[in-house]
From TrEMBL:
It comes from Bradyrhizobium erythrophlei. PANTHER family: 8-OXO-DGTP DIPHOSPHATASE, NUDIX HYDROLASE FAMILY PROTEIN. This is 8-oxo-dGTP diphosphatase. Belongs to the Nudix hydrolase family. Its EC number is 3.6.1.55. Its cofactor is Mg(2+). GO terms for molecular function: 8-oxo-7,8-dihydrodeoxyguanosine triphosphate pyrophosphatase activity; 8-oxo-7,8-dihydroguanosine triphosphate pyrophosphatase activity; 8-oxo-dGDP phosphatase activity; 8-oxo-GDP phosphatase activity; metal ion binding. Signal peptide: none annotated. The keyword Hydrolase applies. Residues 4-133 form the Nudix hydrolase domain.
């Protein structure tokens, strides 16, 4: 048996005033997931979060809002045979959310009653249950 390989990612929990959670669907893929992604060489988590959010959503991270939440391991949504080791951060953003060409859809969902859509395992099994608690 081949052990599945693991990708390290950073993921953002971004909520609006109503407690809804922002999810993205990356270009050409079907699963909705947290904004974020892989770290570039030499990058730390916060730098990667800021870059990914700016690239995906066209807005800026509020530096003082960034708070580590938990680390989670899940089956990778878009890469068969891989798992993700995700560091999840609470993040507030400033500026208008304007999804880039990398993103096919960005949606706000109620974590307590997610719509019937394809959710990435990390989002479905870990992030939304955490969001419901707090
Ligand atoms: N951002 C994010 N990625 C997730 C989540 N859950 C999950 O399985 N992933 C997977 C999807 C991708 O395989 C990987 C994130 O990498 P990425 O967004 O930087 O990668 P990508 O395929 O868009 O770009 P590339 O750098 O490989 O070209 O982690 C999640 O909640 N958020």
């Amino acid at each position: 048996m081949t052990a599945s390989r693991t990708i390290k990612i950073v993921a953002a929990l971004i909520r609006d005033d109503a407690g809804r959670v922002l999810l993205v669907r990356k270009r050409g893929t079907s699963a909705f997931m947290q904004p974020g992604g892989k770290l570039d060489a030499g990058e730390d988590d916060i730098a990667a979060l800021s870059r990914e959010i700016s690239e995906e959503l066209g807005c800026l991270v509020v530096p003082a809002s960034v708070r580590p939440l938990e680390a989670f391991d899940a089956v990778a949504a878009n890469e068969p045979g891989f798992r993700v080791a995700a560091s999840l951060y609470h993040v507030d953003v400033m500026g208008a959310i304007a999804p880039s060409r990398e993103i096919d859809e960005a949606i706000w969902i109620d974590p307590a009653s997610p719509p019937d859509i394809h959710l990435a395992p990390l989002t479905r099994d870990h992030v939304l249950p955490l969001a419901v608690q707090g």
